[in-house]
Design goal:
The protein is globular, with a radius of gyration of 22 Å. The relative contact order is 0.10. The protein has one domain (16-205). The chain starts with 12 loop residues before the first helix and ends with a helix. α2 packs antiparallel against α3. The protein has twelve helices and no strands. It has 208 residues and is mostly helical.
Length: 208
């Protein structure tokens, strides 16, 4: 007769089932969060949903910021497929094809996640996403500080990095048949609505 199997070698089915349930629950949560983020963005360029959901569900925050960054780049990139009638808009489209916004540039250069890049630059992920999407409101000193920190991670062209803060506004303008409404957002407001610490907020607003 064969020897009885060692019970220590038999997998604990309860633990396996529990692990599967946890993974299934997280996948469902991730799907629902992504759906809400996309709907908020498509209905009114609302970036608040990703910050709120990432804060409420830190276990999937990195995936949510990755999704948001990819989604924004994808949707604004639709402009590349449009036929533009006015010469100034055509120039914007050509420029947008060759350039990337600040966060996109860093992601390509480092291959790192949004959360990892933000941590290396000593800022929060929501602040990094927001400033990249609203780069045109950043004062020169803030742009220079961000580029300095970015270049500490990986060697990137200083001129390209500084110019990347203006890319999103060009791509937005090129993606519409009518002029994109001018935002009244200020750099101070951008800083204040972030999840930066009070000390970090004082530092960044001081660069304005």
């Amino acid at each position: 007769m064969g020897s009885m199997p060692d019970m220590n070698d038999v997998p604990d089915m309860s633990e396996t089932a529990e692990s599967a349930m946890v993974e299934s629950g997280e996948a469902k949560l991730l799907f629902e969060c992504k759906l809400e983020i996309e709907q908020a963005w498509m209905s009114g360029r609302d970036r608040g949903a990703v910050h709120r959901l990432a804060g409420a569900h830190p276990e999937v925050a990195d995936e949510l910021y990755e999704f948001f960054a990819f989604m924004v780049e994808t949707h604004v990139g639709v402009s590349h497929q449009r036929e533009v009638r006015r010469g100034s808009e055509l120039t914007a489209v050509k420029t947008a094809k060759a350039a990337k916004p600040f966060l996109g540039l860093l992601r390509d250069a480092t291959g790192e996640s949004v959360q990892a890049i933000a941590a290396a630059m000593e800022v929060t992920a929501d602040f990094l996403v927001d400033l990249s999407d609203n780069g045109r409101v950043l004062p020169a000193k803030a742009r220079e500080e961000l580029v300095r920190r970015a270049r500490g991670m990986r060697e990137i062209g200083e001129g390209e990095a500084l110019g990347s803060f203006d890319v999103v506004s060009l791509r937005r303008a090129a993606s519409r048949d009518t002029a994109y409404p001018v935002s009244n957002l200020t750099f101070k407001e951008l800083v204040e609505r972030s999840s930066l610490s009070p000390e970090q907020k004082r530092f960044w607003t001081g660069l304005g």
